[in-house]
Description:
Elements: E1 3-7, E2 10-17, E3 24-30, E4 37-40, E5 42-43, E6 52-57, E7 62-66, E8 71-74, E9 80-83, E10 91-95, E11 103-107, E12 111-115, E13 123-125, E14 134-140, E15 143-148, E16 153-156, E17 163-165, E18 174-178, E19 184-189, E20 194-198, E21 203-208, E22 219-226, E23 240-245, E24 248-254, E25 259-264
Parallel strand pairs: 5-9
Antiparallel strand pairs: 1-2, 2-3, 3-4, 6-7, 7-8, 8-9, 10-11, 11-12, 12-13, 14-15, 15-16, 16-17, 18-19, 19-20, 21-22, 22-25, 23-24
Amino acid sequence: MASVTYFNGSYYAAGYEMATMPQLGRIFKLNDDGESWQHIAVQGPALENKRFNKIRTNGTTMVAVGEYGLIATSTDGVTWTQRDSGSSQHLEDVTVPADGSPMMAVGMNNTFTISDDGGETWEAYGFSYDMADIISVTYARGYYVVSTEYGQILYSTDARNWTEFDHGFGRISIHAINIDLPGQMVLAGGGGLVYSVSKATTSTALASSANPASAGQEVVFTATVSKPSNSPVTASPTGTVTFKNGESVLGSAPLTVGQATGERK
């Protein structure tokens, strides 16, 4: 068994059956005795030589992915249906966001495939024989994060446009990523190594269009939020700036290229 997850009070595992030739991809459920497993049939084409590599859930839907673009989904653990992934590449990992964001599976040769409708239909993109294999994917707090066989880390907020994160650990093989902890990313690499990347603190500078200002005069405040000079992140800080006068809130504005502006009379 290659992967296991917990869903609706039961453990489910995905992998393949070694005793058969050809080997068959399998989904299993742990029986009530806590020791034996039962095979769950997967509807669709025969799973000859199609091993499952990973199984994940968001508490509502389970998704299992595997070789030759194999994807199967279930909402009750009993009925499993194969889906068209849009790719014939081996899929190594999948993330199933609980907040309704698109599901994403990743795999060999820079393959991404995403589902916007709960796993029923999938759209693949990114495939290239010249690109690295993507071996892991995770999602938390609005960010997708993937790692490649060459140790690259990339992140995205829309599941389609990616920015590379320079973690500073060199060309290591990263097999798993966790970003569930606030302000921290944990990377599990080859050789049993575990790396932790903490959230950097930002600095904020405030400027006004008039200082001092006369009563009733319109003043434009500009807040510039900067990341540390040694930060490996290439993107500008994002989020929202709230302008205050003591405890009184004057207004708020989103950051655009690290800056936010607010007006006040």
